[in-house]
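Researcher: Here's the sequence for the chain we discussed earlier.
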Amino acid sequence: MEHAAEGATHGPMEQFKIEPLIPIHVGGIDISYTNSALFMTFAVMLTAALFWGATRRRLMVPGRWQSVAEILYETVSEMVRGNVGKEGMPYFPFIFTVFLFILFGNFLGLMPYGFTFTSHLIVTAAMAVFIFVSVTIIGFWKHGLHFFTLFVPPNTPLVMAIVLVPLEMFSYLIRPLTLSLRLFANMMAGHVLLKVLAGFIVTLGIFFGWVPLLSVFGVTLLELLVALIQAYVFTLLTCLYLNDAIHLH
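Model: Thanks. This is the structure I predict for it:
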């Protein structure tokens, strides 16, 4: 029983456990500062440090950090312009912030002793719901009740509309779920796989442990790519949802 309990304690899911670092309770509500909140803070600090360092000198021939910042900026800027148009540029600061927050959150989780807050559904769902509500508000603000035409495909016969409108509305309403699940599932799955492979290294010992060690190295490189892709996809979908709210198509 003791061995089983120890194995459960150090299982692949243990890395996702949220632990309070600074206990805070207000009116019976637990609002403690946790390890998840700590790494969110790190993500914000690293983002600020990157752009402070990149813009501090602003050379005509950019250095390493300025080049990285400019590439990130131009990538998201082109994403907004390409998918939303110039009407989407007022929302660029928010979209860029979302991209960087997710990107650094994903990367921090791959560091030794790191914590991946983007592997928690409550975090990804909170971001997805906020984006969904914000985009919907923008749609009603710009179009009023005409926003409901988003759920009626152009030139749709009345008989078909009776079937299509509920489907379109259902597709719209599940956007927060699909947006949050995609990021959460990809980040959790990768980290569980890394933890399992790392366990094999210890189990197989020095003679055969090199096989899972090479696997860990390969999966880590893949996870770096996944971390970037998932931040990109989350941001891209945000742009597409914003495009629907602004242009109604």
